[in-house]
Amino acid sequence: MLEVRIEPPQAWTIPAEQICGELARHVPDDAIIVVDTGHAGMWMGGLFDVRGPRQQFIRSAGHLGWALPAGLGAKCACPDRPVVVFTGDAGLWYHIAELETAARWNINAVIVVNNNGAGNQSKRGFDRAYGGQQTDKARELWTFRQVNFARIAEEMGAMGIRVDKPSELVPALERALGAKRRVLVDVVTDVDIHAPLAVTE
User: Fold this and answer.
1) Mean pLDDT, residues 71-93 taken together
2) Structural domain includes residue 9
3) In percent, how much of the chain has pLDDT > 90?
4) Confidence of residue 151 (pLDDT cuts 50, 70, 90)
5) Which structural domain range is residue 114 located in?
6) Of 6, 23, 136, 183, which residue is the least packed, with the fewest Cβ within 10 Å?
7) Any idea what the CATH number is for the domain that residue 48 is in?
8) Cα separation of 8 and 136, whole Å?
9) Where is average pLDDT lowest: 7-21, 39-53, 79-93, 135-149?
10) Average of pLDDT values for 111-136?
11) CA distances from 101 to 41, 86, 152, 187 (A)
12) Where residue 9 falls among pLDDT bands split at 50, 70, 90?
């Protein structure tokens, strides 16, 4: 029988706040920004500043994974406007096959992935369920093996850019936004950083 071993997520130094802040500074004035639910929506809802009336900010109100197909739809509807999708790795996994759709039909959206190796919005609930000290088995329920989504994007016909140092983020965004093709920017972040809650206990 094949044994599958899930590697524990590694700690990285790029905070999600930095991704949101740099997106706010660098996306074009006429961009459509499409954001997933979960932590992606919490981060961007609180930290992304729309700069003017020509920018549109669209956020999922429910289903995780909605942002990628919705962003491709927005690009098909408005082919002359830049479209930037922001999601996490948990959201991307839902519809990752649509990267091939984007490549096949030349749907030139930019997808930015907060890749922390987990659906870490679930961590607080599991912490409570396990009395504040989760077992390794419990962590398997909400963490993933480390995946290089930039490499997967390249294999599927898109441009893939991997970012694992803070200094690489701005050049990666500038390259992606200037490429005029479908691009996935895979930003490796820290699994233990959580979006701030609007209501605390």
Assistant:
1) 96
2) no
3) 57
4) very high
5) 16-188
6) 136
7) 3.40.50.970
8) 9
9) 7-21
10) 75
11) 24, 18, 14, 22
12) very low
Mean pLDDT along residues 119-140 = 70
On whether residue 27 sits in a domain, the answer given is yes
d(CA 24, CA 26): 6
Provide the number of structural domains found in the chain: 1
Q: Confidence band (pLDDT; 50, 70, 90) for 132?
A: confident
Contacts of 20 (CB under 8 A, 6+ apart): 43, 44, 46, 47, 48, 86
Domain membership of residue 10 (yes or no) is no
Give the contacts of 18 (CB within 8 A, at least 6 positions apart): 166, 169
- Neighbouring CB atoms inside 10 A of 131's CB total 7
32 SS3 class: strand
Q: In what order do the strands lie in the sheet with 32-35?
A: 56-59, 32-35, 83-88, 110-115, 183-188, 159-163
Residue 118 within any structural domain of the chain: yes
Rounded Cα distance, 164 and 84, in Å = 20
Residue with tokens 């590697």: 7
